């Protein structure tokens, strides 16, 4: 890990130290007009070859690819050291940039391919930024904080026609149908719902059926334990035909069911974030910080109630917590200095 960090440190030092070296270059080669190229030659190569090195580390041997990038970087640095004129120096800077981006990309690639996902965050914290993200083009992005707002994927039960009825005659939130499908008498009165016209389907779960019958009998709600085998969209705007295992059917004005969900992407697992029993990212209120310092989560991936308003609220609170942490770190030195004075 130390060797990888030193490779990235050297590549970044080669870029940042340039500001100090440019006056000496200009004085040595009498080349005021070339000053812009001393820096841009390197950064242009960083931009041009980042995806190329990403593919190289993906399809070729990690060690040899990394050593090749190191060789190119050292070759460019050697050309710069012995450059007799400004043009040669610019060429050397471009070659060094081609190898330097390989060193930076290779550091992340080697960690990603050789270190277990739950330990990667511990190896990457001391690189250029606290967190690293690699996009579909193999480009590497670094940052001090990380916010997950990647949502969840609905996992539909194994019932024929469920997916076709989802969003048309069935929703995870009953108030949505009260607003959009007001033609049905069971949802036009808002809170004044006629419970005696409701059915609870437990899909063969006998223990749950017995528990629900005890708590809902006085409200007139009918509990049906028959396994549901098929759902068919009915003729009305939200009608659904429910088919049972015993081949009988019933048409409902609409259905309410909240399917299981799973977080989109492998990112929570890669960082080793703690999850709730429902599979959501476990957060601490009020700012929705996760079990990994510097990582926040907002929206459906972090809240039990998957709704737009809840997601907006969590995003607003995350923004406050994120800004607070960044500012606290930014001004901590000034606060200490003020207290000392």
UniProtKB/TrEMBL annotation:
Top-rank taxon: Eukaryota
Membrane-spanning parts: 65-84, 90-116
GO CC terms: plasma membrane
Record flagged with keyword Transport: yes
Record keywords, A-Z: Membrane, Transmembrane, Transmembrane helix, Transport
InterPro entries given in the database record: FAD/NAD-bd_sf, FAD/NAD-binding_dom, MFS, MFS_trans_sf
Annotated Gene3D superfamilies: FAD/NAD(P)-binding domain, Multidrug resistance protein D
Main location, first listed in the record: membrane
Pfam families noted in UniProt: MFS_1 (PF07690), Pyr_redox_2 (PF07992)
Membrane topology classification: Multi-pass membrane protein
Compartments where located: Membrane
Domain FAD/NAD(P)-binding: 206-313
MF term (GO), any: oxidoreductase activity
Identification of the protein by name: Major facilitator superfamily domain, general substrate transporter
Organism: Penicillium expansum
């Amino acid at each position: 890990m130390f060797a990888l960090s030193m490779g990235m440190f050297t590549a970044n030092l080669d870029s940042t130290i340039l500001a100090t070296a440019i006056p000496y270059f200009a004085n040595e080669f009498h080349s005021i007009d070339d000053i812009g190229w001393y820096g841009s030659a390197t950064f242009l190569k960083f931009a041009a070859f980042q995806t190329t090195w990403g593919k190289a580390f993906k399809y070729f041997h990690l060690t040899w690819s990394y050593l090749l990038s190191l060789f190119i970087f050292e070759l460019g640095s050697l050309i710069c050291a012995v450059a007799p004129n400004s043009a040669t120096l610019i060429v050397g800077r471009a070659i060094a940039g081609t190898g330097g981006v390989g060193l930076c990309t290779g550091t992340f690639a080697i960690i990603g391919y050789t270190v277990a996902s739950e330990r990667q965050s511990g190896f990457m914290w001391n690189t250029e930024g606290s967190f690293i993200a690699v996009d579909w083009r193999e480009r590497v992005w670094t940052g001090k904080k990380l916010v997950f707002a990647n949502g969840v994927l609905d996992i539909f039960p194994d019932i024929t026609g469920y997916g076709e009825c989802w969003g048309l005659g069935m929703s995870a939130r009953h108030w949505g149908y009260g607003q959009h499908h007001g033609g049905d008498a069971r949802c036009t009165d808002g809170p004044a719902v006629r419970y005696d016209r409701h059915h609870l389907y437990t899909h063969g779960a006998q223990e749950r059926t017995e528990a629900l019958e005890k708590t809902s009998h006085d409200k007139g709600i009918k509990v049906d334990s028959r396994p549901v085998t098929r759902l068919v969209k009915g003729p009305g705007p939200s009608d659904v035909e429910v088919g049972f295992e015993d081949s009988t059917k019933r048409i409902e004005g609409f259905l309410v069911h909240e399917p299981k969900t799973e977080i989109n992407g492998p990112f929570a697992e890669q960082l080793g974030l703690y999850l709730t029993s429902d599979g959501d990212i476990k957060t601490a209120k009020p700012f929705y910080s996760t079990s990994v310092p510097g990582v926040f989560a907002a929206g459906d991936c972090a809240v039990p109630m998957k709704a737009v308003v809840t997601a907006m609220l969590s995003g607003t609170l995350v923004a406050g917590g994120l800004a607070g942490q960044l500012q606290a770190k930014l001004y901590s030195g000034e606060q200490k200095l003020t207290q000392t004075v």
